Amino acid sequence: MFIAATIAVLAALTLTVSRAILGPTVFDRVLAGNSVGTLAILLLAVVGFLTGRPEWLDIALTYALLNIIGTLAVLKFFRYGDLAYDDEDGA
């Protein structure tokens, strides 16, 4: 059953990478990049379970945090054009 789940995640990963490459807008590509990160987390968890190595789940959780922070940084960059933008005037 877990091997079937791994194959399904790999198929979804292939489709998501194609959307990231062919996406007509920047936001389609950002969403596809976030989905690739989520599918990679699922793949790490399933393969870690299949091989009997629970430490892979720790790697998957760390990657999840990096995925969230990276997506927020990219969206902030596209909205403001700068990652150091703040709402204060001149200071």
Provide a descriptive summary of the structure in words.
With about 90 residues, the chain is mostly helical. It has one domain (about 1-80). Helices cover about 80% and strands about 0% of the residues. The protein contains three helices and no strands. The protein has helices at about 1-20, 25-50, 55-80. Helix 2 (about 25-50) runs antiparallel to helix 3 (about 55-80). The longest helix has 26 residues, at about 25-50. The protein is flat, with a radius of gyration of 17 Å. The mean pLDDT is about 85.
- Largest sheet entry: none
Give, in order, the helices and strands: HHH
Give the radius of gyration: 17 Å
Proportion of residues in helical segments = over 70%
Low-confidence stretches: none
- Label the structural class: mainly alpha
Distance between the termini: 58 Å
Strand content: under 5%
Structural topology:
Layout: H1 2-22, H2 26-51, H3 55-80
Helix pairs in contact: 1-2, 2-3
List keywords for this structure.
single chain; 91 residues; mainly alpha; 3 helices; 0% strand
Summarize it.
The protein is an all-alpha fold.
